[in-house]
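Q: Protein A?
A:
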Amino acid sequence: MQSYPTWPNLASMMFALARGWADKPMLRDYRDGAWTGITWGQFGRKAASCARNLRAAGVSAGDRVMLCMENRSEFPIAETALMAIRAVPVPSYTTNTVEDHAHLLRDSGARAAIVSTPALADRVRAAAAKVNGLDLLVVIEDPDSGWPHIVGDQQPQDDIAAEASTIPPTALACLIYTSGTGGSPRGVMLPHRCVLSNCSGAFELVRPLRLKDETYLSYLPLSHAYEHTVGQFFLLSLGTEVVYARGVEYLAADMLSVRPTILTAVPRVLEVIRARVLTQVAREKPFKQRLFQMATTIGLKRVDKQPLSMMERALDPILDRVVRAKVRARFGGRLVAAMSGGARLDPEVGRFFLSLGMCIMQGYGQTEAGPVISANPPDAIRIDTVGTALRGVDLQIAEDGEILVRGGLVMDGYWNRPRETEAVIRDGWLHTGDIGELDDGYLRITDRKKDMIVLSGGENVSPAKIEGMLMAETEIAQAVITGEGRSGLSALVVPAEGYDDVAVALAVNRTNLRLSITERIRRHAVVAPFTVENGLLTPSQKIRRVLVMQANSATVARLHQR
């Protein structure tokens, strides 16, 4: 492929590929104890049938429709169908609480939802009862819900594909919700051009890999902007077969079973695997420990482009077979490249895997930019950076160090929030809220201007939301959430007058019951009050979060080391 093809919109892309690759494997799920796949041709017929029947059920152009399901083949089928009839998919996390779903339904105005299981349907129904209800709820695994009929029409896709071809690239493709600094999730309006711009730029990025007929293991939620763009549209457009993992708890087993050639590797996954490898090495006999040390030392010299001695050149291929290959086998043994993103990757972790012969490409982005902004080229990796801007992306550093982005990848704005949109998109430039610097074209993130925590698994969490919930408890006067780059959240808590540590612990536990799994506080510590006198409170009584964490740095470190 000399250049990335041009399509007017994402639905047209999917139907065009279904027509050209009718017999090519496309998607795989684990069902009834075995991996079951569908071809592009089957996908095209199901998506077209879904579009016809959703419209017959009352879904019209412009309608917002919630999609809440695990990673499974029904997700792209339903979303492509909705896009084809100009409805607007609104992906929602399966881990969302009833209140989270209610906010999404209320804010987006969605009157229809497609969910995977009866359990998820119960949660969505409870959420809908808090707003204005739903006109349509389709439950895929409920035989009485009608899903088999919705996707069962075996007519060719031609009529729906022709209709989809008239949709312009500027039309709204989907609403992806991302948390705001005040804790209220905002709907990011992504037109087709945003995702297609990302796809085109990513194509040029991975060109040196010469990808063809690859296998991708998808485990990040499809409601996450990165997985939504890369795992659902970009890699499929290259002819990659997408295999949906059974869940994070099965990820290690699924990598061995599926043997992917392409993988998204959020920092937390890499951290865990590295820790397990090093623990196993420490249990080996001294001779094997020395072999491992030699393999990583020589590997790092290659990474750093340092010359190898004659002895090292002779040992290198042997060490690759007997040491490095065993680590690569944990990923299935066929991995061509892995993209690390969603959170900061510790350079030492990245260098560890690079030294073992793995291609780890760290990148950077945010939902408001489609979401990929930059990434390391596979043939010129600088793991301490987040790479270079994708082709078609203008990137510059403002006077205050903020990263600014311009191009077809930039969102249209936040749904029904014109003032917030104007605050972040000025003169065509997206103000990312992140602080960075450019080093010979490579971007390095140095700080976060926006008040948001990104966990090592890539999850975005609003500390303000959780702090507000904690301080709403009678027993808690003040609270600050920490966890940037960590596997989970911790809290620094100041008890209200008259309450002891036990009462605070009970209040934290009560708060956790109202939070999603990602947002829950794993550990907390009681600390001294934040006051104007000690500099931890502004005159207007706002907590200075950064200064609080600095003043309690030893406590924070202890919380995250447990």
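Q: Protein B?
A:
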Amino acid sequence: MDSIGNAQLEKLLLSSRLKLALIFIFLLALLLVVRVFNLQVTNHEYYQEEALGNQMRSLPITPARGKIFDRNGVLLATNQLTYQLTLTPEKVPNISKVLIELQRAGFIDEQDVKRYHKNRKRFRKFNNIPIKHNLSKDQVAKFLVSNQFPGIEVEPYFHRVYPHDSSSVHALGYVSRMNKKDKLQYDRQNYSGTQFVGKVGIEKQYETLLHGKTGIKQIERNVSGRVVDTKIITPSIAGQNLYLSLDLNMQKMAESVLAGKRGSIVVVNVKNGEVLTLVSTPTYNPNWFVNGISHANYELLQTSKDIPQLNRSIQGLYPPGSTVKPMVALAGLEEGINTTDSKTFCPGFFRLPNVKRKFNDWKRDGHGHVDMKDSIAQSCDVFFYDLADKMGIDKLHKNLTLFNFGQKTGIDIPGEKGGIMPSKSWKKINRNEPWYRGETLIAGIGQGFMTSSPLQLAVATAALANKGQLFQPKLLKSIQKPGESIVEANNKHSRQIPIKDIHHWEEVLEGMKMTIYAPKGTARRLNKGLTYTMAGKTGTAQVFGLDPEEQYIAEKYEEKLRDHALFTGFAPIEEPEIAIAIIVENAGSGSSKAAPLARKVLDVYFNQRSADGLMK
């Protein structure tokens, strides 16, 4: 009985197990059918696109960046074909391990690893992410021979190069790797494959012109991930070439005469506002920044007391000193405060009525009786103390703002500062203090609260030379689209300064002429051997105020406390073509330290013009 019972029980167990197995098989088969139906029917199009996506990828084609030339067609910024090491995340199972192995093999360093992790979020997993730029030929050869790194490739790209190194850097600027701020600033689609953008100067100002238009290519990969075919869907369009108004020969001369000094030289075309020279020293090498500046070079720039990255030509604000005296003299004539025959006696100092303090002239024994032209040529402070006092600060402010003092010039590079042209209201708003009569006197000789940039001085001097036409300075001269002719940039803007009597302007310019040619002119040494005519104005700007009885002796003070040397001028006198402004920080006398530099830079311009005339 027991055996029969056991046989029936086993039979029941086997039957129930078979039923469960059949049910399980049926459910699995049903699940498989549903899954197949879902793949092949319901979501057929979606999965087909996904499958194709694994096989086909659309990637951006980065356009070649436009080149930059000077006015004579000399190359200032170009592109050089070089190579970079890239990593494709979806093809690298263990990225951290591979980066360590690449580092051990000497292909990358710690900075490259940090940079990769920093930039990783900008890319998708199927993008080739750069991890090392500007590989040497030896590095490329070594990698290709011993490539044991799947997902790591060597790719060609165009590397930005500045062939003249530090020359013209403050005008050109430089490109460097895109950051988060750049990504938000520019069109996402057009910059999808872009790694480098302009950071300062012309490179930043005209970034969208230089960049061009990104194209699209479609790549096909096999199951192992290797690219087997590439098809261009939309070709990229190269950026536009830019021709600047700069003259590289004048630039290099200006840089050489300022070598070892802190200062700036700006030269503008009197007839149209084009900037021929825009130099700030000390300089730095823009090539350092293209692929990421090294720690050593970064430290060099950051720790320099001379601040090489400061563009002194547009950001350096200095007391203009005596270089504003021609404009102050013109204001006095136009306002009817004095005439061309008005004379002032200069005993070497000036006193306000009932005020003990003396306002000293730079010449302690005085200039004697001087008229307006003599006062410009000899830079007599007392004449301008007296004139400013009679005019008052508000009239002085009104007339000097006509020459754009206290305002930005509008030059086409970023970062310009406007300087200060003080007035009663300005002081009340900015200092919450009343204006004092003595402050008007020192404003009349370009000291006190008044500040301006070298560019502002050059633009104002040009407006004086051409008798009232104030141009907005420009660096961009011409544009060339890919495959097309060079076209003049339509960017000339100017305004006319109101003129009451043209003879007033001519008399002031005569005073500037006498600065160079009169026996007592402060820049009379410049006329020796001069092959063209020149008018000018020297200036010396105090860094700090002296007590009335204290005499300034440069050797008594550390260099940073010594006077700045300035010079402004234009040439030729009869038909002015160019105007110049120079400042040399803490150099002392404008007549001895700044004016001779102007002569060397202007010589380049007129020697070139003579050579061009002979060639024609």
